[in-house]
Every structure is written in C-alpha cells, then in structure tokens.
Amino acid sequence: MTVVSRATWPEAVASRADAPIEHLYVHMPFCRQLCPYCDFNSYAGRDAEMGPYLEALEAELEAWSPWLRAKTVFVGGGTPTHGRVDVIARQAEAIGRHVRGPQLVEWTVEANPGTLEIAKVEALMAAGVNRVSLGAQSFHPTHLATLGRAHGPADTVRAIEILRRAGMPRLSLDLILAIPGQSLGEQRADVRRVVDLSPDHVSAYVLTYEPGTAFTRAWEEGRLPGPDPDRELAHLDATAEILEAAGLERYEISNFATPGNESQHNLAYWRNADWIAVGAGGHGHVRGKRWKLEDDPARYVARVRAGDVPVSFEEEVEADARAVEHLLMGLRLAEGVDIELVRERTGVDVAVTRAQALSSLEAQGLVRRAGLRLVATPAGRNVLDTVLGLLAEPDA
Ligand code: SF4
After folding, report:
1. CA neighbours closer than 13 Å in the CB half-sphere of residue 260
2. Which among 35, 130, 146, 330 has the fewest CB atoms less than 10 Å away?
3. How confident is the model at residue 2 (pLDDT cuts 50, 70, 90)?
4. Atom number in ligand 1 closest to CA 38
C-alpha cells in the first residue's frame, strides 16, 4: 500500500504539468446487479455505503480542486445513476462545485436504462451535466438476457424519452457487438434501431472475455462460444457501415459521432492528455506518472478518512513506453497521432526510433503519413494489434 498524504500529493502530481489539469474522471462503483461479462470495478448490494462514499469523494475533490480546471468530466461506473434521487443530486452537486465554470465544455454521466427518472435527470442538469452515455447494449431481449442486463429494450426507449423531455443536450448510446448467439442480421437490426433513436454519438465495442469473469469461465467450460476474430470484425464492419451511412462519423475504431459531437473526454485519453481520477478504482495520469486508487469502496473510504490519497499503485512510465502509449491510443483515431507532439511530450522521436518498422508498415499499406501525423489505414485498423506489436520496441 502506498501512503500519500492528501495535503501534499495532489500538488506534487499536478505541478508536473505546466497548467491546471483539464480532465476529471469520477468513479461510482455501485450497481443494481452484476453483469457476467463485466470486469469494471463494480459492486451490487452495497448501496448502504453510498453516503460515506460520497463524503470521501468530496474530500478527494476538495484536495484536487486547486489544480483542476476541468474542460471535461466523465462520471463512470458502476452505474452512476443507480441510487435514490437525493444521492444522485448530492453526487452531481459535489462534483459541480469543483468543475463549474466557462471552461467546462462537456460533463458526461454514464447511465443504465431502468435507472433513470425525470427528477434524477433534472438534478444532473441543474449541476451542469450536459451529456449522458446510456448503456443500451442491445435491443434484442434474448441478447440482453445473455448479457445478464437488468433492463429490457423498452427501458432504453423510455430512458431516451426521459432524457429528451428533460432537455439533456447530448446523448450517446453504447452497444455491445458480437454477443454469443447474435447473428449478423440481428446485429444489423440492433444498429438500425440505434439510428432510429437519433443519438449524436454511439460507442460500439465487441464483447471481450475478460479474465476472471463469469463469461470467461463459461467459455473455458464450453458453455459459451469463445472469441472469434473474423466474426467480431464482421459485426464491427456491419455496424460501421450502417452508422456511417446515417451520418455518424467513425472518429475512433469503436466510436461514432455526428460532426462536433465526438466525446471530448475520451479524445483526451486517446490523445494521451493528463487527467485526474477520483473514486474507487480510478486511474489517473499526469506527465508519465500513473496511479490507481483502491478498488474496494470500504477501503477507499477508510483511507480517505485517514487523510490519505487512497493510491493502491503508482508508477513512473519511461519515456519510450510513453511514446508507445501515444501510438497505441492515437492510432485508434481517424485523425491518427501527431508524432511531433509525441516527441515534445516524451523526448522520443518515433520517426527515428521506429524508422524501419514505419517504412515496412507503410509499404504494407497499414499506416500512412499525413504531414506530421501517423494514421492507421482501414486495413491497418483491422490488424491494429499487429501494427502496435511492430512499433512496441525501437528498431533493432
Ligand atoms: S451495469 Fe455496467 S458496471 Fe454494473 S455490472 Fe453491469 S456492465 Fe458492469
């Protein structure tokens, strides 16, 4: 366990950057029930801990506040909209006190269908939330049941009606692709349903089998079909085709938006910007310093009460590893990665240290140069792990 004082740690970390930190992640770990594929830091049946948890969150926010000038906030989970209206309102108000201001352009809260009601949405908006990311996942009852989700398709439609009635400015829908048993036709039907609901943003991730989840155990025991890269690519391609035809641009491999509605917070991650995280299990990053906070909400609360920043892990990332991270994140974006910015931020010129690998990848049509940017081609994006494997180490 790393013991770091709340009186000194935020300043020590934040002052590594040359300006206040512009991005804040807040983790709310509580859920109504646990989904069998999920490896997020989430807990069911512990709602009684929400009050002390919010107190701890407020103390952490207070400690970071002098070094924070948030342009974007993302409240993720868990299910940040799970809980009573007064708890949601307190959560939003506590965050709002530290982030409100003319610089704040985007404040997203993740929500699950079935947890939203008009009073909650109004409380979020009163605090300054201007974007909701709604976990639709599928519109097919069978596939939602396979995923162990607590909601049905009608709950998603109702949640969207509530958000629109309240006047929530921006709406993103999440879809899970290539669910076990889901045909390509059913995938297309799900995506067309999404288009009919007119979100300004869609996140569409292929289901992944994370270690330690009930899904992975079921696959290992032969009760569920496992990953199938060709099938997954077909589902992602079909999804992209329908969304792009509907005017949602594919600005990242799994993310689509109408012009101007890209997630500014997630773009900050993909551009390897600095961000602060508060809340159990949150990860933060400022100029090569990375840290992770205690996963368990009770331990998190206890450490905050003791005057500590509840860090469970911290590391200094070496310059070359930071440059690789820039590539890893930036090549997911349609805009690619600015290799001059990578050099400025890390001191590593990947055009020099990876000259041979880049020439080879260009010759194979997997990446291209666009001025100072390096961009994965459509073929390269389909084999991004291979591309990144070749760039992971400097040329021999
Ligand atoms: S609702 Fe979301 S965070 Fe909670 S268990 Fe399900 S997938 Fe995980």
Report:
1. 3
2. 130
3. low
4. 8
The pTM assigned to this predicted structure is 0.96
And the tokens for 179?
Answer: 């669910």
Euclidean distance between CA atoms 371 and 91, whole angstroms:
44
For a mutational test of ligand 1's pocket, the pick from 32, 37, 43, 79, i.e. the residue with the most ligand atoms closer than 8 A to its C-beta, is: 79
Which letter does DSSP use for residue 187 in this model? H
| Fold observed for domain 321-387 | Arc Repressor Mutant, subunit A (1.10.10)
CA–CA distance, 105 with 95 (Å, rounded to integer): 15
pLDDT one-digit tens code per residue, 129-188: 999 999 999 999 999 999 999 999 999 999 999 999 999 999 999 999 999 999 999 999
Residues spanned by CATH 3.80.30.20 within the chain?
Answer: 4-270
CB 109 within 8 Å of CB 124: yes
The DSSP secondary structure of 218-250, one letter per residue, reads HHHTTSS----HHHHHHHHHHHHHHHHHTT-EE
CB 138 within 8 A of CB 182: yes
List, by residue range, all CATH 1.10.10.10 domains of the chain.
321-387
pLDDT band at 3, cuts 50/70/90?
Answer: low
Is CATH 3.40.1160.10 correct for 4-270? no
Ligand 1 centroid to residue 379 C-alpha, Å: 32
